[in-house]
Amino acid sequence: MSGRSPREALELADYRARVAELYIECAGEGAEATAEFRRRRDRLFAEHPASALTPEQRERFDGLPYFPHDPDARVRCELLELREPGELAIDSGGEDGVVRYSRVGRLETQRGELTLFWTEGYGGNLFLPFRDATYNPSCAYNSRWTCPLAPPENRLDEPIRAGELRFGDPV
């Protein structure tokens, strides 16, 4: 975490932990669970010191834009064996340098096949990056944030009209 003060490093670790808790605690189905997730995510963006938003963006922030809740957008699929195991290394373009991911399985969805990865850094976690026609990566909020882009094997041609819409106030 070079370039960050100890306080900034702890704030970022806390932010990452809160995001993980958010996904776990709001994992229910239905419009009510979706609304709670979105309220809590907006609060994190508005209030947390490690938010991707700048202080100026926070002053104007009244919530992230989302697609309407659609129960049919939920995807259920099995984790299948890999055809080609291996590692993926992505240069983040920032101070995190090269981040390494191991392929752990593939998911056959109605919109196409996606590879599921294990992040070798950040304490490890499952990672399912994909790009569709509405792509909005976490780095879209602020130019000082970097993010791994979805590899070619996880690119979908059609738009997935679920989750966040493109952020309209990037810096």
State the separation between the terminal residues, measured CA to CA.
Answer: 22 Å
Tally of distinct domains: 2
Structural class: alpha+beta
Q: Residue-averaged pLDDT, rounded?
A: 87
Gyration radius (Cα, Å) is 17 Å
Order of helices and strands: HHHEEEEE
Sheet bearing the most strands, described?
Answer: 5 strands, antiparallel
- If helices are DSSP runs of H or I spanning 4 or more residues, what is the number of helices? 3
Give the strand tally.
5
Determine the fraction of residues in helical runs and give it as a percent range.
Answer: 25-40%
Poorly predicted tracts of residues? none
What sort of overall outline do the alpha carbons produce when their principal axes are compared? globular
Q: What proportion strand?
A: 15-25%
In short:
The protein contains three helices and five strands. The chain is of the alpha+beta class and 171 residues long.
